[in-house]
Amino acid sequence: MLSRKQKHVLLKFFSMFSVVRGYNILIIVIAQYLTSIYILAHDKTLRQVVLDLNLFMLVLASASTIAAGYIINNFYDSEKDLINRPNKSMLDRLVSQNTKLSFYFVLNFLAVVMASYVSFNAVIFFSAYIFGIWFYSHKLKKLPFIGNLTSAILTITPFFAIFIYYKNFEHVIFVHAMFLFLIISMRELTKDLENIKGDLAQNYQTIPIVYGENVSKIMLTVLAFLTLIPTILLVKHFNIGHMNYFFYLSALLLMVFILFLWKSRTKTHYLILHNILKFIIVAGVFCIVLINVNVVLNRI
């Protein structure tokens, strides 16, 4: 049996894990490595990519920066989250704000140190990324359109670090990025619909609050149809192996999303829609391996 002190430490660990969204960071780390292996550095051997210390440092710097970003976002949204996510908020509050801020500065410092191992340009990149996340959490996220656009850009920024490192400018990469950007933009707007109650209480000027739910639904419908453009391009014009099945599935799920969207009225409905988009994003990460299922045999 665990002692009371051990239970307290364990609870604080889970609280911090919840604050930094450890599960999201793990997915991003996996996505960065799979993107490197199957898309950005497909001309290198598996060993060259996996054992590349520079890539490892860039991934760690990304993970540290994102974790710090979740902490500062949690700091600014603490009151709003009490309304929108009361259970998660109570768990998050087991760690004091001072402790969270201490972790925030330590994680950002470590990110810059790890980036410095790669190059001075990497230090500049991650310093700008850290500032961008802070400025978004402090100012921009309360603004309609600008907040959503900035959030989507910041979400895909870690992949730009890898993209710049490998200097791979193939067209297929930009089309993949367009698909991901559109799905993330849809997720951000859906989250705004889901969190209307807390955003209204804290005077956040999100799109659903300023322009209404119907305008938000029209925008989501337009974004869903725009997502079909990179989907069709990837399936018809690029060699993506068996990953085409993922894009067929995502197109089907987006049609389901649109149909359910126009019947949605409650927070629970919007949470279901949010989870559909999260499933597409997470499934897309693991389906990258379908681009070349024999990569282990062919590129050792």
What is the count of distinct domains?
2
CATH homologous superfamily name of the largest domain? UbiA prenyltransferase
SS-based structural class? mainly alpha
CATH fold descriptor of the largest domain: Tetracycline Repressor, domain 2
Distance between the termini: 47 Å
Q: How would you sum up the major sheet?
A: none
Shape: globular
Question: Given the structure, what is the number of helices?
Answer: 16
Q: Work out the helicity level.
A: over 70%
Mind telling me the C-alpha Rg? 20 Å
The amount of beta strand, in percent, is under 5%
Q: List the secondary-structure elements in sequence, H or E.
A: HHHHHHHHHHHHHHHH
Outline the low-pLDDT stretches: none
SS elements, strand count: 0
Average residue pLDDT: 91
CATH architecture of the largest domain: Orthogonal Bundle
Query: What's the CATH class of the largest domain, please?
Result: Mainly Alpha
In oligomeric terms, what are we looking at?
Answer: single chain
